[in-house]
Amino acid sequence: MQMIGKAGKAAAIAAIAALALTACGRAETGTTGGSSGGEAFPKNSSIGVALPQKTSENWVLAEKLFNDGLNGSGFKADVQFANGGVSEQQNQISAMVTKGAKVIIVGAIDGAQLGTQLKQAKDSGATIIAYDRLLLNTENVDYYVAYDNFKVGELQGQALLDGMKAKKPSGPYNIELFAGSPDDANAKVFFDGAMSVLKPKIDDGTLKVVSGQTSFEQAVTQGWKAENAQRRADTLLTGSYGTASLDGVLSPNDTLARAVLTSVKAAGKPLPIITGQDSEVESVKSIMAGEQYSTINKDTRKLVEHAITMVKDIQAGKTPEINDDKSYNNKVKTVPAYLLDPVIVTKENVKTAYVDDPVLGPITK
Ligand code: BGC
């Protein structure tokens, strides 16, 4: 009778009275206090975490945070990177199922290529959480936890406009657009978010995409690889910027922003206003030095913490909290999501943005 132990005297009396009135005390206590209906699985169970390639620092951080956080909470963490690509990630998820993982958290390389393994996982009774990147074309995904990807794009688009305006009060501005890897479901959402801000300005002539490459397909960077962005930037600069100035670049993340800046420097051109994402150490330093214009703070600690909170809830037999039930349709279902708020960081707020960050705090003091 846990409830009586915790409740005040009046509640205890009420509970005893209620018990006296019912023939089945156990059934009554099970419905009180919003507490769990019982453990869904033992606490020392295996929890699989399938991470993609180390294409940005956030993934590397996530590995340690998942290991520490899950093991520290009494679970058995099974955290894997798939640096070899999609088939390696497929095999890792299958192996997690074989090892009896009760929850499998997936940061997909290609969110549309895991259908068979996710079905296996679901059939084995595991709960599937899509982490940071949505899992596509499958009913076998239970929850999604991520920073609001569309908002990331909006913040990037707005930062690009603000940065260019601060440098040169009126347009037209010459810009180029870069997007992430097309197999990552986030890449299109980031791009769409940014274009929701930029497209009206392209249409009214304030922004000029000199190369003419305005579609997502033209802007993508396969595998989120720096060398691919750098190569495309080289080509754009040679092909479209003979004498023209490049005022701004939409870059979806920090790794690619630094690659584009390398290309612009090699071409001997003045540096454009350029956006980023992830708060990578080198980019935060670059912002402080006045080179990269902006990044996005998506604190990995908070994201991992939320994923682990979901695991704890599921283990305890509770339904995890979600705060969005409409934004992320994966073409088969709308996935219940918990979305966190991304924050834009420029030179203006770089000193306050990371005060409690153990790595970035000391650098930005
Ligand atoms: C993440 C970004 C990251 C990119 C490349 C995306 O799915 O949301 O934060 O920059 O992957 O690793």
Concise account of the structure shown:
With 365 residues, the chain is of the alpha/beta class. The protein contains 15 helices and 12 strands.
Strand residue content: 5-15%
What is the first-to-last residue Cα distance?
Answer: 53 Å
Largest sheet at a glance? 6 strands, parallel
Indicate the overall shape: elongated
* Tally of structural domains: 2
Q: What are the secondary-structure elements, in order, as H or E?
A: HHHEHEHEHEEHEHEHHEHEHEHEEHH
CATH topology of the largest domain: Rossmann fold
Uncertain segments are 1-36
Q: How does the helix and strand content classify structurally? A: alpha/beta
Helical amount among residues, as a percent range?
40-55%
- In round numbers, the mean pLDDT is 91
> Count the strands?
12
- With strands numbered from the N-terminus, the spatial order across the biggest sheet is 2-1-3-4-5-11
The CATH superfamily of the largest domain appears as: Response regulator
> Count the helices. How many?
15
Shape-level CATH architecture of the largest domain:
3-Layer(aba) Sandwich
Textual characterization of the structure:
With 365 residues, the protein is of the alpha/beta class. The chain has two domains: 7-148 and 299-342, Rossmann fold (3-Layer(aba) Sandwich); 149-297, Response regulator (Rossmann fold). 45% of the residues lie in helices and 14% in strands. The chain is built from 15 helices and twelve strands. The protein has helices at 2-6, 9-21, 25-30, 57-72, 86-98, 115-123, 149-167, 185-203, 216-219, 226-240, 254-266, 281-288, 300-315, 350-353, 360-364, and strands spanning 46-51, 76-81, 103-106, 127-131, 143-147, 173-177, 207-209, 248-250, 273-274, 294-297, 337-340, 343-346. The strands form three sheets. Strands 2-1-3-4-5-11 form a six-stranded parallel sheet, sandwiched between helices. The protein has a four-stranded parallel sheet with strand order 7-6-8-9, sandwiched between helices. A two-stranded antiparallel sheet has the order 10-12. Helix 8 (185-203) links the parallel strand 6 and strand 7 (207-209). The longest helix is centred in the middle third of the chain and has 19 residues, at 149-167. Beta-D-glucopyranose binds next to loops.
